[in-house]
């Protein structure tokens, strides 16, 4: 069972993002405020859960949470301000969309930069330690996976319905065969051989 809070006497929002390592699509973040007495043994880091388990937990999280929100930073923003800053931006937007203002943020990772004035704690591997961060990771991943499945219909041949835009063999073969789409991140190296191909 993951920990319900870092400190019990305040409203904490767990924040996480998905899609940083992808070659295509936006980076997506979620923020979740859970009740202080919330307990669910199945809530865990989204990467450790099966797709069916993640999908079944989404409605449970949304119906139980005091507040939740999902936000994106676009491919254009990723290319303009870099993926790390775009991840921070997506998390900031998710917090701003919450129906209730938290007293404190629990951020998955080792650093955070934001325009928000809310205090925060960065927690390495936080999605496997705190329920609110794990819940945020589940909401963000299910949302982004669904988005990339829809994008796969618009841009077939890259395997996004299975790889969600991550640099798999199928995805890279699609890039070699079909080139880049408008939702590929232009600032990323798409192929390991790119430098050799260019010169």
From TrEMBL:
<dbReference type="GO" id="GO:0005737">
    <property type="term" value="C:cytoplasm"/>
</dbReference>
<dbReference type="GO" id="GO:0006298">
    <property type="term" value="P:mismatch repair"/>
</dbReference>
<feature type="domain" description="RNase H type-2">
    <location>
        <begin position="10"/>
        <end position="199"/>
    </location>
</feature>
<feature type="binding site">
    <location>
        <position position="108"/>
    </location>
    <ligand>
        <name>a divalent metal cation</name>
    </ligand>
</feature>
<dbReference type="GO" id="GO:0032299">
    <property type="term" value="C:ribonuclease H2 complex"/>
</dbReference>
<keyword id="KW-0963">Cytoplasm</keyword>
<dbReference type="InterPro" id="IPR001352">
    <property type="entry name" value="RNase_HII/HIII"/>
</dbReference>
<dbReference type="InterPro" id="IPR036397">
    <property type="entry name" value="RNaseH_sf"/>
</dbReference>
<protein>
    <recommendedName>
        <fullName>Ribonuclease HII</fullName>
        <ecNumber>3.1.26.4</ecNumber>
    </recommendedName>
</protein>
<feature type="binding site">
    <location>
        <position position="17"/>
    </location>
    <ligand>
        <name>a divalent metal cation</name>
    </ligand>
</feature>
<feature type="binding site">
    <location>
        <position position="16"/>
    </location>
    <ligand>
        <name>a divalent metal cation</name>
    </ligand>
</feature>
<keyword id="KW-0540">Nuclease</keyword>
<dbReference type="GO" id="GO:0004523">
    <property type="term" value="F:RNA-DNA hybrid ribonuclease activity"/>
</dbReference>
<keyword id="KW-0255">Endonuclease</keyword>
<dbReference type="GO" id="GO:0043137">
    <property type="term" value="P:DNA replication, removal of RNA primer"/>
</dbReference>
<dbReference type="InterPro" id="IPR024567">
    <property type="entry name" value="RNase_HII/HIII_dom"/>
</dbReference>
<keyword id="KW-0464">Manganese</keyword>
<comment type="similarity">
    <text>Belongs to the RNase HII family.</text>
</comment>
<dbReference type="GO" id="GO:0003723">
    <property type="term" value="F:RNA binding"/>
</dbReference>
<dbReference type="GO" id="GO:0030145">
    <property type="term" value="F:manganese ion binding"/>
</dbReference>
<keyword id="KW-0479">Metal-binding</keyword>
<dbReference type="InterPro" id="IPR012337">
    <property type="entry name" value="RNaseH-like_sf"/>
</dbReference>
<comment type="function">
    <text>Endonuclease that specifically degrades the RNA of RNA-DNA hybrids.</text>
</comment>
<dbReference type="Pfam" id="PF01351">
    <property type="entry name" value="RNase_HII"/>
</dbReference>
<dbReference type="InterPro" id="IPR022898">
    <property type="entry name" value="RNase_HII"/>
</dbReference>
<keyword id="KW-0378">Hydrolase</keyword>
């Amino acid at each position: 069972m993951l920990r319900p809070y870092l400190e019990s006497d305040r409203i904490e929002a767990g924040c996480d993002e998905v899609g940083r390592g992808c070659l295509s699509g936006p980076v997506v973040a979620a923020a979740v405020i859970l009740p202080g007495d919330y307990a669910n043994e199945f809530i865990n880091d989204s990467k450790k859960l099966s797709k069916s388990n993640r999908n079944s937990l989404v409605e449970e999280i949304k119906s139980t949470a005091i507040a939740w929100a999902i936000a994106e930073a676009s491919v254009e923003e990723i290319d303009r301000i870099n993926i790390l800053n775009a991840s921070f931006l997506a998390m900031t937007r998710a917090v701003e969309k919450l129906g209730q203002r938290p007293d404190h943020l629990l951020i998955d990772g080792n650093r955070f930069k934001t325009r928000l004035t809310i205090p925060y704690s960065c927690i390495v591997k936080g999605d496997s330690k705190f329920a609110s961060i794990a819940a945020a990771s589940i909401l963000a991943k299910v949302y982004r996976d669904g988005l990339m499945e829809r994008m796969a219909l618009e841009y077939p041949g890259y395997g996004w319905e299975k790889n969600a835009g991550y640099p798999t063999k199928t995805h890279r073969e699609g890039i070699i065969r079909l080139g880049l789409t408008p939702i590929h991140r232009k600032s990323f190296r798409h192929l390991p051989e790119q430098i050799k191909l260019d010169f």
